[in-house]
Amino acid sequence: MMAEEEKNLNLSNSAAPRPLDVTNSDMTSLDQRLFRDVKSVLPVKRQEVLKWFGWGYKDSEFYVKDDVICFRGDRYPLDDCSLPYFTDWVKKKLDIKPSDPQPTPTLPQTFPKPIGNSQFLEELKTANILYSQEGLDRLIRCHGQALHDIYYLRHNKFKRIPDIVTWPCNHDEVKKLVTLAHKHNVVVLPYGGGTSVSGSITCPQDEIRMICVLDTSQMNRMLWLSKENLTACFEAGIVGQDLEKVLNSEDLTLGHEPDSYEFSTLGGWVATRASGMKKNTYGNIEDLVVSVKFVAPSGVLERQCNAPRISCGPDFNHIVMGSEGTMGVVTEVVIKVRPLPPIKRYGSLLFPDFESGVKFMREVARRRCQPASVRLIDNEQFIMGQTLKPAKAWLGEFVDYCKKAYVTTVKGIDVTRLCAVTLLFEGEQKDVDRQEAVILDIAKKFKGFSVGDKNGQRGYILTFVIAYIRDLGLQYDVLAESFETSVPWDRCYTLCCNVKRRLETECQKRNINYFLASCRVTQTYDAGACVYFYFAFRCTNCSNPVETYEIIEAIARNEILSLGGSISHHHGVGKIRSPWYGTTVTDTGIELYKATKHQLDPKNIFAAGNLLPEKSFNLMTARAKL
């Protein structure tokens, strides 16, 4: 490590917002007043708002007071809550002493010296593009949110971080930057919200060329909106919550809500083929995209037609979707939008066991009557979710006792086996009423019953709070991560049981006595479903805890694939799942991908190392140097 030499280069240089060009033939009927220059929740210095060593906002966290776990963060329903039930659950499940945390990580005082490329820097200075070589700007963009990333960050183990961070403000500046990088053989890593859990934005540790992060966060304008066609064009750096606020102000919505919705970006959704909690009503990202503007070293890839469907050879939108920053960068996206629904109603159901819940989910999918969101959680997650409540007065405790008595005595359900379904209905009043009635009727066939809207709303919103738990766990040597898959219906229940059993077995083999293995079924389709696994363990007996976690997860992934599951449903491949990419797409698919990448990026400057292990591109890089 060496002390930072160049603290801040050209950081005050920022291009002014450009007016909308309505002379383009696709925009002649658009109202220029619908142009929006959006203030992003991600400022240039995002460390002023977000944690540098973990998930989310700086002012939002789980913490311990008087030996009880609490939560603060006024954006969330648990703000200023003391959580004694969760504290007791954590003590019992993971053998944690809340009063004995590890110290909060401190910022490094020195950073790896940046690798230089003087010719690139000289031309960049004249390009009117915002940039910085300050150590902290570089450090916080060397990683995503994978467990490996956060653990290495907290323990200051990154040996290689980006050498420069740039903030282009629009498509033209991206073109200019990519052209310069291609000319001078500088690696470009697109960076949006930084929420990836696949290792896709982790800085390549063996890269010897200069690495330039292309931070898209200042590309966040709505360029145009057509209310007649229900389409809109946004720059790719806009964050999910900002995009929704803009559309909601026009009584519209995109309806795409991944768990990372607060911080992830439109461009990131496209690059990873993202899915959201309300995909049943609004679709996955591939259903919402009309067209994409994509800058590659060889030029701009863009379909010159925004018709609702086109039969014109292979769809190049699907070259971009799922490319994970390996061939270029998304700059603008035309999306479908919908009128804001007048009714939003939550609900929840209980089932006697997980198998009954899976059968319910399958029947709902078979009849194609899914509400906007329907998610099945197993007993482990249900119990944990119930503990994330503040303490109640005696009357509240009595009511809860009566509810439990009703479930166990009247309904005859074993609380150690029951599972829950959270529901979200959106639409017109009569449509929501009809849909809810159908769902409740199906639930009865599988011994399910309603437990009210408050539980459903709470379960849906808590999704955004749960992400903060991992940072708490790391203070007590608890490593935690989620991973997901998609699977045909006839193997869904078996896969859930077998993978959890395999995680338990692998922990026992390694004398790991305190762990959590749970799952939920989150998205449903005609032919199958998405399954999310949550795995955590206390690692006091592990010499290399991250490596231990990665080995166990890899074993679980092999179990998933052997049971007919996919490599990923929506997290993407990244670096973590790249060992399985080849067997998924076959050798012919690998060669097709390589040929496409070489055509778009002949020097391999978009060298993120995703999809295929980095060694697969060694020959391509060598050719570029000749």
TrEMBL record:
EC top class, as a word: transferase
UniProt EC number: 2.5.1.26
Domain FAD-binding PCMH-type residues, every copy: 158-340
Major location category of this protein: other
UniProt region (Disordered), positions on chain: 1-24
Pathway participation: Glycerolipid metabolism; ether lipid biosynthesis; Lipid metabolism
GO biological process: ether lipid biosynthetic process
Pfam families named among the record's database cross-references: FAD-oxidase_C (PF02913), FAD_binding_4 (PF01565)
Protein role: Catalyzes the exchange of an acyl for a long-chain alkyl group and the formation of the ether bond in the biosynthesis of ether phospholipids.
Name of the protein in its database record: Alkylglycerone-phosphate synthase
Species in which this protein is naturally found: Glossina austeni (Savannah tsetse fly)
